[in-house]
Structure formats: C-alpha cells, structure tokens
Amino acid sequence: MATTSELDSSLIPAEPVEYELECPRCYGVMCLCSETETLLYACEECDFILHALRKKE
Fold it and tell me: How far apart, in Å, are the Cα atoms of 26 and each of 3, 35, 51?
C-alpha cells in the first residue's frame, strides 16, 4: 500500500489556469467563470462567452 507522501510525489502538477483573458471580440477583460474540464470565460464588456478545453496529458 502506498503512503500519502508517495502518492503526492506521483501526482503531476496541474498546468496553471489563466483567470483573465483578453476578449477576441472587443479586447476587453474576460474572467474565468467555470473551472471544470471545460473552462468557461465571459467578457465583461460585450458578453462574449469562450469555452476552452484543458490539455490532457
């Protein structure tokens, strides 16, 4: 049986998630709304919604 420290060392660190992006439509600020397998960003200026998939290893 593996110990907790062995399990922690075997985990691959998650890639960093951007919490704000530049909107491709109006160049305003898009904020992260959902952080599941599909990242969901919403623009505060023009209400544009962007869906992005996380990269799988």
Answer: 50, 23, 17
pTM: predicted TM-score of the whole model, two decimal places: 0.64
The helix/strand/coil state of 53 is strand
- Mapped onto helix, strand or coil, the DSSP state of residue 42 is strand
Q: Where are the beta strands (DSSP E) in the chain?
A: 20-22, 29-35, 38-43, 49-53
Three-state DSSP class for residue 6 = helix
User: Which pLDDT tens digit goes with each residue over 1-57?
Assistant: 445 444 444 444 456 778 999 999 999 999 999 878 889 999 989 999 999 887 765
